Structure formats: structure tokens, C-alpha cells
């Protein structure tokens, strides 16, 4: 009985740490094409396959096109946010090449808690 309890506690700890990792604030600031971050800034093409570490990240294959809506700034400038079809998420900027720029002047705005929302099996997880 003690062994089963130990295994359940271990699974609970693993589950909790995965949940905490998937709600971590990635940056306090982001750059967008407009103050609401609704306009696409650019269109990029994947130069490599990418599989993100959790559900906040956009997965893609080499050659796929992605629309970029924001770029994290200051603490984590390597991550951009974009969409591919109905999928939306973060990805490393060095995994893509810019094909077309729609908005040249970027606006820096504070991130929101919802920017780091992880939708995993219809559960909404906030930090």
C-alpha cells in the first residue's frame, strides 16, 4: 500500500512541475504591429522542423508558412508568436526566414497573463 501511495505522490509531483513549467511568463514585454497585437507583422517560412516543449508553442515542419503577430522582447527576444492554419503559439525566430514584412514599425507593449495561456485538453491554465 505504501508503494502505491509513493507512486501516486511521484506522479502528482511530475504533473505539478509540468503544469508550472507550461504557465511560466516568458517575457514581460512584446513587440507588435499595433497596440492590440491583432495585425500580422510578417509572413515567414520554416527553415527547420520544430516541436515545442509544451502546448503554448507552435509546431511546424520545414517549408510551412507562418503568420507572425508578435515578438517577445527584452528578456526573451528569440521567441516570436504566430499562426499556421488554426494553430497558434510561440516559436524560435531562428527556425524561420522572413518572406514578407507587412508592418515596418513595431510597437512595444506589456504582455498579459493570457499571452501565456496553455490550452491542454480543454483545460485553461494560468500562472
UniProtKB/TrEMBL annotation:
Which SMART domains does this chain map to?
A: SH3
Q: Which GO terms describe its cellular component?
A: endoplasmic reticulum exit site; endoplasmic reticulum membrane
User: What is the membrane topology listed in the Swiss-Prot or TrEMBL record?
Assistant: Single-pass membrane protein
Could you tell me the keywords of this UniProt record?
Coiled coil, Endoplasmic reticulum, Glycoprotein, Membrane, SH3 domain, Signal, Transmembrane, Transmembrane helix
Localization? Endoplasmic reticulum membrane
Which InterPro entries does UniProt cross-reference here?
cTAGE_MIA/OTOR, SH3-like_dom_sf, SH3_domain
Q: Per the UniProt entry, what are the Gene Ontology biological process annotations, in alphabetical order? A: endoplasmic reticulum to Golgi vesicle-mediated transport; protein secretion; vesicle cargo loading
SH3 domain segment(s): 39-101
Which residues constitute the signal peptide according to the record? 1-22
Q: Main localisation, per the record?
A: endoplasmic reticulum
Q: Which family does it belong to?
A: Belongs to the MIA/OTOR family.
Q: How does it assemble?
A: Interacts with MIA3. Interacts with the COPII coat subunits SEC23A, SEC23B and maybe SEC24C. Interacts with PREB; recruits PREB to endoplasmic reticulum exit sites. Interacts with APOB.
Entry-linked PANTHER family: MELANOMA INHIBITORY ACTIVITY PROTEIN 2, MELANOMA INHIBITORY ACTIVITY-RELATED
Task of the protein:
Plays a role in the transport of cargos that are too large to fit into COPII-coated vesicles and require specific mechanisms to be incorporated into membrane-bound carriers and exported from the endoplasmic reticulum. Plays a role in the secretion of lipoproteins, pre-chylomicrons and pre-VLDLs, by participating in their export from the endoplasmic reticulum. Thereby, may play a role in cholesterol and triglyceride homeostasis. Required for collagen VII (COL7A1) secretion by loading COL7A1 into transport carriers and recruiting PREB/SEC12 at the endoplasmic reticulum exit sites.
Q: What is this protein called?
A: Melanoma inhibitory activity protein 2
Q: Which organism is it from?
A: Serilophus lunatus
State the encoding gene. Mia2
Amino acid at each position: 500500500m505504501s508503494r502505491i501511495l509513493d507512486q501516486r505522490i511521484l506522479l502528482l509531483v511530475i504533473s505539478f512541475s509540468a503544469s508550472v513549467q507550461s504557465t511560466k511568463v516568458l517575457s514581460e514585454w512584446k513587440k507588435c504591429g499595433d497596440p492590440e497585437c491583432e495585425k500580422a507583422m510578417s509572413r515567414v517560412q520554416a527553415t527547420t522542423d520544430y516541436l515545442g516543449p509544451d502546448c503554448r508553442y507552435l509546431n511546424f515542419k520545414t517549408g510551412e508558412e507562418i503568420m507572425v503577430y508578435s515578438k517577445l522582447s527584452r528578456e526573451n527576444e528569440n521567441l516570436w508568436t504566430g499562426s499556421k492554419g488554426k494553430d497558434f503559439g510561440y516559436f524560435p525566430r531562428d527556425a524561420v526566414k522572413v518572406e514578407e514584412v507587412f508592418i515596418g514599425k513595431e510597437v512595444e507593449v506589456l504582455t498579459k497573463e493570457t499571452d501565456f495561456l496553455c490550452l491542454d485538453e480543454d483545460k485553461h491554465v494560468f500562472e
